[in-house]
Design a protein that fits this description.
alpha+beta; two-stranded antiparallel sheet
Length: about 1200
């Protein structure tokens, strides 16, 4: 513990202050001294230049030239060293696993392992006679490890372009930093502090802090190298610009709500704030308050798109659309407005604005589905199959459904956008928004507030499991609520139809009318006061505000009624003198309220987490930190305001009651795209499959069920959300789906008009003790609680008790639904050892094995070809002898029903006594198969068909004995051999069986399916022991299983493809080697409807706990698997949330890619709203209407003719 704390102080705290320099005990004294002198040079050189020489640009130029030459020399030397020694071929073998991709290396003869000074592993081929000379040369020439010690310069061993960029960046730091010194912004000790900041920024380009406090990943992060110099250049440039603008006085200031912006005083104050922030760089980077550069750009674009344009992170064509709309808006404002007429140009602007906003609201930021559609239509040659795709014989229906949804969306927009533009043009040109003022505005505000209150507050509350945390049951219940086991899909209820139609009314009628009314009023006001207002700026604002408010009304109307009602009440009635214009008020309040909602969620999370009556101390540090957090409550509130303003998580330090602000994250939170890669036979080597059986742990095998759950949600989630089955939702919300064995966290990333983008994170089936306690907390009911403080007086009927109501209000989660129905698989696993423990049960399995082989022989369309094959006839001719006996040690009296104890083996006669009737019956049914074939004429005892069946059955049992190491009488070897054959590992070792290689279909199409089918028949034997004695029943059962069931090894890609294609039943034999256990399980899957409990979690709780785990494991290097921050805390579901982090921070067994669900594929929603208004549907409707018209009028015409 002490060494770890010292390492954090040395490599974390001290290195963050200096920019990366620290005393490394693993380096030599000379190497540490070299680093120290290098850092002192970068610190002292600008300081001495500034103090000793008169300030001038010449001195700045000399400083920049020296820094550029210094960095160029270091980079050039290092680049040439890598060019010399990185030419060896690296032989690398990566472990294929979804948990780790750590490299492992092979060392053939003559290969020398060399670890460079950058910790990069290289292998050189050297002749053994020259090995000693090679080692001496390496020690003499490549002295970086002992001299320079730049082992963590991930940037140094990259390309020429990045080395040049590093030199340019170091020169820019020197130039901009010395420029601020020349301007006289720093005095006294602050000059030295600023030189320290310059040195830390330049030194980080040579040896950065690894890992940094803002690093999202373990190990070396080359992106974080650029963070300090880039931020320094941005701050210095803004300081210089603000100072220049503030002193010149050319900018025209403006006032907003009494605050003057861009005045000289405002700009100089902004300059001083940036100067202070620049001086605080060591502290800022120590606490990780700013993200790495790429994350900063991503978050900046995301915030601009969401708060300025009202988008869903689709900032691709917004600039072009805004420029187009700006031209129309400017022309409309400049045109004269004659009362009460509206200029035609403004009506055109309103129509285009509504049409473009509607189209943009329906576009997803995930281009994968759109690109796959374009590729399938225009570039079919690029459709190469990947190993992870299901086999051709198993069709996956989901891609076609998604393509149809996207096509329907575009076809609908092709009709709806022009139609909406024309209707909006007509309404705007009718002067209704001018002639009916101000009554129209008040009516629209009241209607929007009333409909919004009913739709997004009253109905969701009545549908919750615990309405208002007072009632014990939902008032509006689904039909599945009272069912113990759900057997059908969810039924569409009347209140779901009402909810969908009210949303439609809001989206397409009420809020567009409100926005168009505000736009018309704003444009008329600007046109009437052209001298008072900046027309060009106002035209741009009207275009942006209209686009944002319309897109918000189309995408996320759930919280718009609160913003609209507050804006109307506050600026029209309470404080009308503060109002600028209603459009500007509404636009700014939409930004403010998004931050206030974040602040509310953060405060709820903090108060819930630190409430003293329910806090759970996971470690001694938690008990120590709890009392110290109380005096800092005011500071905690300030941090909450700051984090809400900049959209940063508020995370508990080491899971304690002490909270700190982290750096800003995007909506999807994780900066890298981590997706689970399932290990199966398509991505592992054959030798690995046969020897080590990779991926044979429960987590890897069970991940497919979460993948199927993701596909089910992709099909239905958007429609279910629009029907209100999960309650209210916004971008960034997190939900937990809990069932008997599936526990998944669903993170909503993007909300569009008719689409939802989400990510699913599946937790372990058999979770830890802490996870089980939290699962119990979210699944247990509180209706029976009768407590009130310390007594139990009971509660009113259908109401919660006082204790239950109080406890539910102090949770960071709530139950949104208890019976959410999804299509999935019920999983049953039986221990194979208990089912095959007795010899009689193994004998039944072998009997079904033989009968299955006979069945597949008779059903094969190649049977005549096999019977006519000379090689097969020659190999099986000895079996026709009357004295032939196969006395292989594999055959045993205990497990082989046709074993002849007198001959001590299996003879054709004993085989025919048991199986001849079955062979004859299968042959008689041969003409009923789908492939055209006819029964073999001869199926008597000495016929070629019986001989072939005998040979294959003996071969199959011998293969089982070989895989069991000739110990079939023992249970463990028998199960091992059965599993080997089940996954297709047939090892033909007897010369008598080599005839099977005449056609590999004898193994692939006969023996291998026979093994798998025998296991299914053995399972059915327990339910109906005597039923399969009848050949008719047995034959029909095997045929039905062939048609409706997939029996395969779980590592076979067929297994994954069958699950994703929604096959009705599947069966597999699983060998689990986990935690010292060695078990064989028979896994049976049956497609059915599953019931989930939907838990809505405070999104700031999830973001805060995720940020805390990332800081603790990456920066603070806590490797304790039982750390206090992952212990169970039922009020915040701490263990489940922390377990869902990206690996290796968390340990989810499945993390889906960003997945988009479309509303067009939801059949129940289509029955409410109807299909898309596309050209094809309009044409079909016209044709059907004409057919109905002609059908109804034809009798009338006939009567008139008569």
């Amino acid at each position: 513990m002490g060494s770890q704390a010292l390492q954090i102080l040395r490599q974390g705290v001290w290195a963050s202050i200096t920019g990366g320099w620290y005393v490394d005990p693993h380096q030599s004294t000379f190497s540490n001294c070299f680093h120290l002198y290098l850092w002192i040079f970068l610190l002292a050189f600008p300081f001495l230049l500034y103090m000793s020489l008169p300030p001038s640009l010449v001195v700045a130029a000399v400083y920049c030239a020296v820094v550029a030459a210094f960095f160029t020399a270091i980079k050039a030397v290092n680049f040439h060293l890598h060019a010399m020694f990185d030419l060896g071929e690296m032989v690398e073998k990566r472990q294929v696993s979804h948990i780790t991709n750590a490299p492992r290396f092979l060392y053939p003869t003559g290969i020398i392992f060399c670890q460079t000074l950058f910790k990069k592993t290289m292998l050189f081929y050297v002749h053994p006679s020259e090995e000693a000379h090679f080692h001496s040369s390496i020690r003499g020439l490549y002295c970086g490890e002992t001299l320079f010690g730049f082992q963590n310069f991930g940037i140094w061993n990259r390309g020429v372009g990045e080395n040049v960029f590093a030199v340019v960046l170091a020169s820019m730091v020197a130039f901009l930093g010395f420029l601020l010194l020349l301007q006289g912004f720093f005095r006294d000790i602050w000059v030295f502090q600023f030189c320290l900041v310059i040195a830390s920024c330049q030194y980080s380009l040579l040896k950065s802090v690894q890992p940094d406090a803002a690093s999202p990943m373990h190990g070396h992060n080359w992106v974080i190298v650029y963070s300090r110099p880039v931020y320094f250049c941005l701050c210095c440039a803004h300081v210089w610009v603000f100072d220049l603008a503030g002193r010149s006085g050319h900018l025209q200031p403006f006032s907003l709500y009494g605050v003057t912006f861009f005045s000289a005083h405002f700009l100089l104050c902004a300059r001083d704030v940036l100067i202070v922030l620049t001086l605080c760089f060591p502290i800022i980077f120590l606490f990780g308050l700013v993200p790495q550069v790429n994350t900063f750009i991503m978050c900046l674009l995301e915030q601009v798109d969401m708060h300025i344009f009202g988008g869903t992170v689709t900032h691709n064509i917004l600039v072009l659309v805004t420029a187009l709309l700006y031209g129309f808006c400017l022309g409309a404002i400049i045109a004269p407005w004659e009362h009460p007429h509206v200029p035609v140009v403004f009506s055109v602007f309103c129509g285009l604005l509504l049409a473009f906003s509607y189209h943009l609201s329906r576009q997803s930021s995930d281009p994968i589905i759109l690109w796959s559609l374009v590729r399938s239509k225009f570039f079919p040659e690029l459709l190469g199959r990947t190993p992870e795709e299901p086999p051709l014989e198993i069709k996956d229906p989901l891609p076609e459904k998604l393509h149809n949804s996207v096509k329907e969306m575009f076809h609908s927009d092709l009709v709806m956008c022009p139609l909406m533009a024309v209707i909006t043009f007509a309404i705007s040109a009718s002067t209704v928004f001018i002639a009916l003022q101000p009554a129209l505005s008040y009516v629209l505000y009241m209607v929007a507030g009333g409909v919004g209150f009913l739709t997004h507050y009253l109905l969701p509350q009545l549908r919750k499991q615990l309405p208002w945390f007072c009632l014990a049951h939902p008032v509006l219940r689904s039909r599945e609520y009272s069912q113990f086991e759900v057997r059908d899909a969810a039924q569409l209820m009347w209140f779901e139809k009402l909810y969908a139609w009210l949303q439609c009314l809001e989206k397409y009628f009420i809020y567009p009318a409100v926005v168009l009314n505000s736009l018309t009023t704003e444009a008329q006001l600007v046109s009437q006061n052209p001298m008072k207002l900046d027309i060009y700026g106002r035209a741009l604002f009207i275009s942006l505000a209209g686009m944002k408010l319309l897109r918000l009304s189309f995408c996320a109307p759930s919280l718009q009624y609160v913003t609209l009602c507050f804006t109307a009440l506050f600026f029209l009635f309470d404080y009308p003198h503060f109002s600028e214009t209603f459009l500007l008020d509404y636009y700014l309040m939409s930004i403010l309220f998004s931050k206030l909602w974040d602040l509310l969620y953060k405060l709820r999370f903090v108060l819930t987490y630190i409430a003293p009556w329910q806090i759970t101390w996971g470690s001694a540090f938690h008990a120590f930190a709890q009392p110290f957090a109380v005096p800092h409550s005011a500071m905690l509130f300030v941090q909450a305001v700051f984090s809400a303003l900049f959209s940063t998580p508020l995370n508990p330090v080491l899971g304690s009651a002490v909270f700190v602000t982290s750096y800003t994250r995007p909506v999807k939170f994780w900066e890298r795209d981590y997706n689970t890669k399932r290990v199966d036979h398509s991505n592992t080597r054959l030798a690995t499959q046969l020897d080590r059986n990779p991926g044979a742990d429960d987590n890897n095998l069970n991940s497919i069920f979460y993948e199927h759950l993701t596909r089910s949600l992709q099909h239905s989630l958007c429609g279910d959300l629009l029907l209100g089955r999960w309650g209210n939702y916004t971008t960034g919300d997190c939900f937990i789906l809990a069932s008997d064995y599936l526990n998944a966290l669903v993170h909503i990333i993007e909300i569009g008009n008719g689409l939802i983008t989400f990510q699913l994170r599946g937790l372990e089936f058999r979770g830890t003790y802490c996870q089980q306690r939290e699962v119990e907390a979210i699944t247990e009911g509180v209706e029976e609680d009768e407590g009130c403080c310390c007594c139990e007086p009971g509660h009113l009927p259908h109401m919660l008790s006082f204790n239950a109501a109080f406890g539910q209000r102090w949770l960071a989660w709530e139950v949104a639904a208890t019976k959410y129905v999804l299509e999935g698989y019920s999983i049953s696993d039986n221990n194979a050892a208990s089912m095959l423990q007795v010899f009689d049960l193994r004998k039944i399995l072998i009997t079904y094995y033989v009968k299955s082989i006979v069945y597949y022989v008779s059903r094969s369309p190649k049977l005549e070809e096999w019977l006519a094959n000379e090689m097969v006839q020659e190999a099986l001719r000895p079996c026709l002898g009357p004295a032939y006996v196969d006395s292989d040690p594999t055959f045993n009296l205990n497990i082989d029903e046709d074993y002849d104890h007198r001959a001590s083996g299996v003879t054709p006669s004993s085989f025919c006594v048991v199986y001849l009737d079955w062979i004859q019956y299968c042959n008689s049914r041969r003409q009923t198969v789908s492939v055209p074939c006819h029964p073999v004429e001869e199926s008597e005892r000495d016929s070629p068909l019986v001989t072939l069946c005998f040979g294959l059955c003996v071969l199959g049992r011998r293969a089982l004995g070989t895989a069991s190491h000739s110990m079939s009488a023992s249970l463990e070897p028998f199960l091992y051999g059965l599993h080997a054959l089940f996954k297709g590992d047939f090892r033909i070792t007897s010369p008598r069986d080599e005839w099977v290689f005449a056609d590999m279909d004898l193994l692939n199409r006969v023996v291998a399916p026979g093994v798998r089918m025998s296991l299914k028949l053995h399972q059915d034997h327990f339910t109906s022991p005597d039923e399969y004695e009848d050949p008719v029943v047995l034959y029909d059962a095997i045929t039905a299983n062939e048609e409706n069931m997939v029996i395969s090894h779980e590592g076979d890609p067929v297994w994954r493809g069958a699950i994703l294609a929604n096959m009705p039943s599947l069966l597999a034999l699983r060998h689990v080697m986990d935690d010292g256990s060695d078990e064989y399980k028979i896994i049976m899957l049956n497609k059915r409807f599953l019931s989930f409990r939907v838990i809505k979690v405070n999104r700031e709780c999830v973001r805060g706990l995720w940020a805390g785990q990332q800081q603790e494991l990456v920066f603070l290097r806590n490797r304790n698997p039982e750390r206090g921050s992952i212990q169970n805390a039922k009020q915040a579901l701490r263990n489940m949330i922390n377990s869902s982090c990206d690996q290796p921070i968390g340990y989810p067994i499945y993390v889906s890619p960003l997945t988009t669900s479309f509303a067009g594929g939801h059949t129940q929603l289509r029955s409410v709203w109807g299909g898309p208004v596309s050209p094809h549907n309009i044409y079909a409707w016209l044709i059907s209407s004409w057919d109905r018209y002609t059908y109804t009028t034809q009798p009338v015409l006939v009567m008139l003719r008569l």
